[in-house]
Amino acid sequence: MADGEFDEFVRSRSTGLLRIAYLLTGDRHAAEDLLQEVLEQMYVRWRRIRGAPEVYARRTLVNRSINRWRRRGRRPEAALGDLDVGLPDHSDGIVVRDVVVKALRELPPRQRAAVVLRYLDDRPVEEVAAALECSPGTVKSNAARGLEKLRAALGPVLVREGDER
Amino acid sequence: MTDIDIHHVLVRATDDLAPPADLLDRVRHGGRRRVVRRRTVLAAGAVALGVAPAAVWRGATAVEPEPSAPGDLGQDREFLGRARKAWTTGFESGSRPRVLWAGHTPAGPAALLTQTAVLGDGRRHSVQGWVRTTGGKLRAVGVVRLVPPGTVVPSALLLGAQRDSLVLADLGRPVELSQDFGIDPAGRPVRNWAPVTSAEGVSIIRLPARTGRLRFGLRSGTERVEIDDLGEMATPTSPGDRRLDRTLPGAGAATGWDVSKLPGYDDPYGYQVQPDLPSWYVRGTLPDRRPLVVQTVPADDGARAFYFLGSGTPHYAGFRPAGEFLRLRLPDQLGIIVGYLNGALRYRAGGGDWLPATGDAALLPAATAQVEITPRGGQPFVTVV
């Protein structure tokens, strides 16, 4: 196994992947668990996937996050509003995170994944389609529907952000 | 509201997130454990079960015609070809997969296959796994099993929205199923076992639907039968990697006082969905100077709690929610063990003054009525004990 390559991948990409995992799960602890599981799986299969580790990582993150049954098994599900966002320090960042997580939670899993990969990770449609194992057209429709709902939920936040600027 | 606005909001919502500093170490440790666990567990199983001459496959050439297989789809050459095409192992291999069984299940057609594989260490193994119908297509199940070359071992799939259809491939070996488990008065899991009889080496068994929960067990002789589509999710009860070891001031020696190391306290053949929550192991000393250990052990969706008082004999204190919070009242007014992961503790009796406790776990006086817990980075709350 090319340990050096794997180590470098983890060092350089784990922050970005954790942020994707967080928005997919809505829970920081679940996101860390999810990322570790995915990276462990990649470690075992590195010889096979090292040519395209990003694609594999995104696809596995999405698939595992969509598997709600498994996630419920590993960690009792809680209302997202009770997780990570209930601290008394309601700074702007906390408020934004609260709204974003709640809004994403309302989306069907594949719409959520399409929005996160397309607009957080800034991936082109074709790469998102590879991660979601669907056609680019399906990605576009999922992302469009997800965005529409997200815009409605995030409107007040965005307006306030604009005012501050 | 532009796409760029959405991007900025998503970035803002996550820009303070960073992975744990020891993530790489944890991943490498976990990755190695996955490989080692498969090798050791499955190799041991294959040795105990012996080699199945009828099912042994020592390689085939690419020009070999598609052989038939047991199962109601075992004569369907088109399906067998699709199964082989859907099969992927994740390991380098240079030989043709062989279908051990192919048939209909409540969740659609599925097949069990085997193939030789070369691991990262350059050694050849047999790889065994399933393809099943997902989203209308045949797809390889995520986990493959490594066994010594030329051997096969019983394995199973758990299908259905409620995970209530067990597809069990015994491959001609005696396999027993336990649908449920209980906890005896000593805190030990107990099971009743019944033999499984199959047609053509595969049984399809309906289990009670329990969303998100598993309670059954499978064994073949003294070996656990693996469920291949659960990955690492469901495991035998074990202390796990998230045990919170705490040594209270003045703690005495209590070597070996650990139910996870005592026979009969685990559930080696059972499948239980364990919450990814910590278990506690707290060593201390009683006011009469006897050593004390309080321990929680994950089981199903909670934890069994035990205590040792002055000897290596465990006492079962019941089943309770697993998690960061530990609370166990000892008998005979010996005190109360309270813990909260990375929290600060204060306690008081009646309406008395709040007194600080040292660390995030402590043995408090039996007269304690309330405990104030301040989670790290959070607000204090008071609980009655």
TrEMBL record, chain A:
Q: Which residues form the RNA polymerase sigma-70 region domain?
A: 13-75
Q: Which Gene3D superfamilies match?
A: 1.10.1740.10, Winged helix-like DNA-binding domain superfamily/Winged helix DNA-binding domain (1.10.10.10)
A Gene Ontology annotation in the biological process aspect, one of them, is:
DNA-templated transcription initiation
Q: Which intervals hold domain RNA polymerase sigma factor 70 region 4 type?
A: 100-150
Q: Which terms are listed as keywords in the entry? A: DNA-binding, Sigma factor, Transcription, Transcription regulation
Q: Which GO terms describe its molecular function?
A: DNA binding; sigma factor activity
> Record's superkingdom?
Bacteria
Alphabetical list of CDD domains matching this protein: Sigma70_r4
> Which SUPFAM superfamilies does the entry mention?
Sigma2 domain of RNA polymerase sigma factors, Sigma3 and sigma4 domains of RNA polymerase sigma factors
Q: Which family does it belong to?
A: Belongs to the sigma-70 factor family. ECF subfamily.
Q: By what name is this protein known?
A: RNA polymerase sigma24 factor
Organism for this UniProt entry:
Paractinoplanes ferrugineus
